Amino acid sequence: MKKICMLGMGYIGLPTAIMFATHGLQVIGVDINQHIVEALKAGKLHIKEPGLGDVLSKAIASGNLIIQTALELSDAFIIAVPTPINPDKTADMRAVISATEAIVPHLRPGNLVVLESTSPPLTTASLVKPILERSGLKAGQDFLLAYSPERVLPGQILKELVENARVIGGINATSAQAGRELYASFVKGEIVLTDATTAEMVKLMENTFRDVNIALANEFALIAEKLGINVWEAIETANRHPRVKILRPGPGVGGHCIAVDPWFLVEAAPEQARLIHQARLVNDGMPAYTVEKVKQAIVGVDKPIIACLGVTYKANVDDIRESPAIEVIEKLLHAGLTVRVFDPHAKTPQALSAYWTTSLEAAITGADLLVVLVDHDEFTQLAPEALASMRQRRVLDTRNCLQASAWRQAGCEVTLLGAA
Length: 420
Ligand code: SAJ
Hints:
Oligomer: single chain
Bound molecules: ligand SAJ
Order of helices and strands: EHEHHEEHEHEHEHEHHHHHEHEHEHEHE
Largest sheet: 8 strands, mixed
Helix content: 25-40%
């Protein structure tokens, strides 16, 4: 395979296209958004990911990566478009459907099509395959079809794309084998071959495993507060057991993966996915719980001003999709509270522009409560002296990322999520 078309120039499609291009393949990077295409052609990134800008420039300069809105005849087509969630918690497959339809007129005998988008089980066999077969070609015989999930952690995408094990599920063995040959051009991790539905399930199981375990940590936090103990200390101690690895509680679970993917299993098997469903509800309940903690922390303060630090879905990224921090802030506003917001990583979310500040100082001067919603490095490195301009030095740390005891010694009133 010499030439591939990558459909979707987002968090996964773009770095993957760059990887293929910098490993000798000719890549057409396709996106339906003209603005994104123009920006990328000029070497400008619309997403933030360490190291990505450099490799993008290299790939474009080499001539191996061409970014445009139109597809071309290719040896392989890879679909990496978003699969968001509908308000009723079912998967929104419109982007996958239209990307697949766009491939049909370009599909030729011998081609390989790979779906990378996280999708409900059976998508490759029951949704993508019939659409592609509208070409008159038969999947598994005339063309090859596989599912290969991305598994990279935002913030470490370039490293993990190369080093992580990759699963390739074919609709038949020849399809999986063709997938292996394609991805082996840059993947150094193990490549595991299976069938398409198992590969879809593997991806959903991985993120569901994490979601359920975070829900467990969050539930421990709620129990600890009820019992009047510190969950962080309890978790640290429990984790000394050789087979225990409890994750971290927090103000909720965000991002476009962990907060979304378990719903695809609930949709596929509602009667069986009871624990998975419950875990989603526990995690989705954390922003409201955090708001209650904020209200407790400002009891007795006249016209309190609340400085919220962080809006991204996790530390040191710019991504605000499904961010629990934003949900907390919106709920505070809804409760009629006065809020200021600061995040050195994120672009101003439109809904929060009226409350946005561009420096820590602007956010905290005259404020009564500092709420740490995201453990960005800039915040974990804060010293209590930085709070000198606050009206009251009250702090709610939802990530246990400040040195609470040192801050208390310095005269701050510190509340921790997960501790009485
Ligand atoms: N979180 C906690 N406590 C923890 C760990 C995470 O509250 O102990 C929260 C984070 O703050 C964040 C959310 O969970 O809001 C998700 O963050 P994450 O770092 O767990 O995961 P993502 O969404 O950045 O990336 C995940 C990864 N999946 C797994 O670790 C199983 C990544 O490998 C996947 O490629 C990615 O989802 C994806 O695209 O599916």
